[in-house]
Amino acid sequence: MPLFKKKPKYTIVRVKKKDIPDGLWTKCPECNHPIFNKALAENQMVCPRCNFHFPLGVYSRVELLLDQGTFKELDKEMASLDPLEFKGARAYQEKIAQDQKTTGLIEAAIYGEGEIGGKPVIFSATDSRFIMGSMGSVVGEKITRASELALKTRRPLIIVSGSGGGARMYEGMFSLMQMAKTSGAIYELRKANIPYISILTHPTMAGVLASFAGLGDILIAEPKALIGFTGPRVIEQTIKQKLPEGFQRSEFNLSCGLIDKVVPRKELRNTLIKLLDYLAHNL
Known about the structure:
Number of domains: 2
Structural class: alpha/beta
Strand order of the largest sheet: 3-4-5-6-7-9-11
Radius of gyration: 22 Å
CATH superfamily of the largest domain: 2-enoyl-CoA Hydratase, Chain A, domain 1
Shape: globular
Number of strands: 11
Oligomer: single chain
CATH topology of the largest domain: 2-enoyl-CoA Hydratase, Chain A, domain 1
Mean pLDDT: 86
Number of helices: 9
Distance between the termini: 86 Å
CATH class of the largest domain: Alpha Beta
CATH architecture of the largest domain: Alpha-Beta Complex
Helix content: 25-40%
Largest sheet: 7 strands, mixed
Low-confidence stretches: none
């Protein structure tokens, strides 16, 4: 009989679920795998198991893509009015105030000047956290002003779209007209041979895709992003048919020729630098 017992290498501690603090883990919507939030942030908000790319806020996009300290935001204080005095289940102004408090943004889009790899660009991005990144009068105006600034300065335009809400119904026709306005501004860039790179992220849908987001000279998408006009569930209910596997995801759209390239988030900045070297050498 041994005189001493070996101590176990590890001590087993049983923790009850109620003792685990909230907000430490995020469940991936693609594979349902729980991810430690710190690990998710260190991996640029990409699921380490299935490579699902979580949506990023607009300022996170600036940090990811632009040279450090070069971004100068313009028209930051521009805010939406309530032309229809929309009430509904929640008043429009209540919805705006809530999302401003939650996100720290004044509106769903930003734009300004910056550099990528030392190349001057005009940069804009939309944020799906703010009324689903939907395009109201302010979002449309900012995209239009970004395009006009790119035309005036002859700098390439880069827009990162993360808008799952399309045109903002709270503003009615004032929102729908932004589709034509932004498309017209983008067309002026094309006539002047100024490059426009459109980056489609999860989700990019409806009126945003049908206007400025779908008009890039080069269309790049992040992996597994939902990209389309009407969501797959609505389409299935309408046509009474089962849709193909991966329908409206980036890879499906690439196979159908809607986009030019699917680029992982970690490779996106270097991809833009290479494209700018090629497209903007004579500007």
